[in-house]
Design brief:
Elements: H1 2-15, H2 20-30, H3 35-44, H4 52-61, H5 70-89, H6 94-123, H7 128-155, H8 162-169, H9 174-182, H10 192-197, H11 199-210, H12 213-226, H13 234-242, H14 247-272, H15 277-293, H16 295-299, H17 302-305, H18 310-338, H19 345-373, H20 384-393, H21 412-428
Length: 429
């Protein structure tokens, strides 16, 4: 049942991307939003993912009716469903839409924290290989959900209006409530007052654990890796205004990307699970940058001179970058799980992944600022190539600090826990 619950929550996280194309069309065509603002709005909706420690902290130390997992899963399902219903029925304003998507994102983030906390608990005391395979399994479910969402997200827009897609997306979060009811969890019958009184102690322990170089240096590297400028939603405007791609073909590109993302997960799980993190991160980042620079050929239309159709170029590029993207991501997920001290797995893992997500938000905001500064708009994409160049070249800059990543797969969380226990014994002595 553990595997079903965790994989289903991650599957729904993948399927939730079904709304992404509908959101882009809705903001571009209905609300007349420019690329920089759309990038800003869509990235800000990811902010709930930057406060994941709060959800993990509440889940670990503040049970509801004696349960640490079930109630929070149910709350997340309700938040997501209500938010997408409002998008479908009531939204006619840019910022009201932002609020709805923000709350929906929060609901998904809460369920993600619960599932990942369960995965971290399962990984505790296991080998790097076991932890790698477990991460590959649950995130494989996410990739499968992404594949389904990518196809139907584009295909259904031929027959459904944007708002109808939002209504469809309101159904999926309701299944989390069912999953919560069957989730294997033993009711806690202890003293809730004592648990809540211990929250301050947990915060202190979290802060002390985070002060270890074995934790804060890798986390800082992960942040920098994600905080480089990103093109954000501007590619959507290029695809629709310049290349005139249909929603169906945009969905096809997303399908290829999602399938290849699953391929990246499988490659990591089967061939790279025992490989040190540093070389994986170095080479996947460098190769991604090289292939990312080939996007300039599409922007300048060189691919047409070479006899490569726009559609074929975009599909091939999406395939390669998606595989490399997940090969680059998986070591970070495994490392994050193995940095968590015993007793605060959900909270620490959520904190590490929040820093990762915050980096992504900041990177997209940087990209939106550059987009605005270059004067790139819905009707003027002349300087888009400069944005693409800056965003790709900047991705290799964090590799200067690759030494902050552990050279092997040691369980630093267990080491830090053991060190803290030794220090406590010394103080008592």
């Amino acid at each position: 049942m553990f595997y079903f619950v965790t994989s289903w929550v991650l599957f729904l996280q993948g399927i939730s991307s079904m709304s992404s194309l509908a959101v882009s069309y809705f903001y571009k065509n209905t609300l007349q939003v420019e690329p920089a603002l759309l990038s800003t709005i869509t990235s800000l909706t990811a902010l709930p993912w930057t406060i994941k420690p709060l959800y993990g902290f509440l889940s670990d130390g503040w049970p509801i009716l004696g349960y640490r997992r079930k109630p929070y899963l149910m709350i997340s399902g309700i938040l997501g469903s209500v938010s997408w219903f409002c998008m479908a029925v009531f939204v006619n304003d840019v910022w009201f839409g932002f609020v709805c998507m923000f709350i929906a994102s929060m609901g998904m983030a809460v369920s993600n924290v619960i599932a990942e906390g369960m995965v971290v608990e399962k990984s505790r005391g296991q080998t790097q290989e076991f932890a790698s395979h477990l991460q590959a399994f649950v995130h494989g479910a996410q990739a499968i959900g992404g594949i389904i969402a990518a196809y139907f997200g584009g295909f259904l827009l031929q027959y459904l209006a944007d708002r109808h897609m939002f209504m469809l997306c309101a159904i999926f979060p309701l299944t989390i409530i069912v999953v919560a009811l069957i989730s294997p969890e033993v009711r806690f019958d202890g003293d809730l007052t004592a648990i809540r009184a211990d929250m301050a102690g947990k915060l202190k322990e979290l802060w002390e654990a985070f002060q270890h170089p074995q934790i804060y240096k890798p986390v800082a590297f992960v942040f920098m890796l994600n905080a480089t400028p990103a093109t954000g939603a501007t590619w959507f405007y290029f695809y629709t205004n310049v290349l005139h791609f249909s929603s169906t073909f945009l969905g096809t590109i997303n399908v290829v990307g999602a399938i290849c993302s699953l391929g990246g997960v499988l490659i990591f799980g089967n061939f790279l699970a025992n490989t040190p993190f540093r070389p994986i991160l170095i080479w996947s980042t460098i190769i991604s940058t090289v292939f990312g620079l080939t996007q300039l050929a599409l922007v300048f239309r060189w691919n047409r001179e070479w006899g490569i159709p726009d559609a074929a170029f975009c599909i091939g590029e999406s395939a390669i970058l998606s595989v490399l993207g997940w090969i680059n991501t998986m070591p970070i997920l495994v490392l994050a799980a193995r940095l968590c001290p015993v007793g605060m797995e959900a909270t620490m893992y959520a904190l590490i992944m929040s820093v990762n997500n915050l980096g992504g938000v900041i990177g997209t905001q940087f990209g939106a600022l550059i987009t605005w500064g270059l004067g790139v708009t819905d009707s003027n994409l002349d300087n888009f190539w400069i944005l693409v160049l800056i965003c790709n070249l900047s991705t290799v800059l964090p590799l200067v600090f690759i030494g902050w990543i552990p050279p092997d797969g040691e369980d630093y969380g267990a080491e830090i826990t053991a060190e803290s226990e030794r220090n406590q014994h010394k103080q008592k002595a």
